[in-house]
């Protein structure tokens, strides 16, 4: 599923909203999640899962197919932990 499909499904289930209103709403939700993660906050969506950031230290990595190595600096990465209800729904 891509964002366009998500917008279409929401529009079908909520015909009282225009497609433009649905897009604004979905974009707003995604933007708030991005802001929270950027600030180091954990986003918990009950029944779905938890999004959080984790700091990964610097490392030396080998380039596949060559003998060359590169230094990869420390960075923050996003992690997702599925909630119990999501795990059960996928089984």
Describe it for me?
The chain is α+β, with helices and mostly antiparallel strands. The protein has 2 domains: 1-40; 42-91, HU Protein, Chain A, CATH 4.10.520. The chain has helices spanning 3-13, 19-38, 84-90, and strands spanning 43-45, 49-56, 59-62, 69-72, 75-82. The strands form 2 sheets. It has a 3-stranded antiparallel sheet. β3 (59-62) and β4 (69-72) form a beta hairpin. α1 (3-13) crosses α2 (19-38). It is elongated. The two termini are 19 Å apart.
CATH top level label of the largest domain: Few Secondary Structures
N- to C-terminal separation? 19 Å
Global Rg: 19 Å
- Return the string of H and E elements: HHEEEEEH
By secondary-structure content and strand pairing, the structural class works out as alpha+beta
**General form:** elongated
Return the domain count. Answer: 2
Strand order of the largest sheet: 1-2-5
Annotation, overall tally of beta strands: 5
Mean pLDDT: 95
Considering DSSP H and I runs of 4 or more, what fraction of the residues is helical? 40-55%
- Stretches where pLDDT is under 50 for at least 5 consecutive residues are none
CATH homologous group name of the largest domain:
IHF-like DNA-binding proteins
């Amino acid at each position: 599923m891509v964002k366009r499909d998500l917008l279409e499904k929401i529009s079908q289930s909520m015909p009282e909203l225009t497609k433009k209103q649905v897009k604004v709403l979905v974009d707003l939700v995604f933007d708030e999640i991005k802001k929270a993660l950027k600030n180091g906050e954990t986003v918990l969506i009950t029944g779905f899962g938890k999004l959080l950031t984790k700091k990964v230290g610097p490392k030396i990595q080998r380039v596949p197919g060559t003998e060359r190595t590169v230094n990869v600096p420390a960075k923050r990465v996003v992690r997702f932990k599925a909630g119990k209800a999501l795990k059960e729904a996928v089984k």
